[in-house]
Design a protein that fits this description.
Number of strands: 0
Distance between the termini: 50 Å
Structural class: mainly alpha
Strand content: under 5%
Shape: elongated
Length: 66
């Protein structure tokens, strides 16, 4: 997906961020790259992979009455 300057202006407006005109092209390119990476991640087969909250197996301390 490609992001153009008008989309960057709309996103900035929604986020209530002032973006100078000279930065719009650079931000459009950066957002396009990010969306490209997200599209690549969407192609990964995750069937059978359990969701996790952390990449490290962690046991949390429990109270004595639990």
């Amino acid at each position: 997906m490609s992001v153009d300057k008008s989309t960057v202006v709309r996103i900035a407006d929604l986020a209530r961020i002032k973006v100078p005109e000279e930065e719009l092209d650079g931000l459009a390119a950066e957002l396009s790259n990010i969306l490209g990476w997200v599209e690549q991640l969407d192609e990964v087969d995750t069937d059978g992979v359990a969701p996790m909250a952390s990449v490290v197996a962690t046991e949390y301390a429990r109270r004595a009455d639990n």
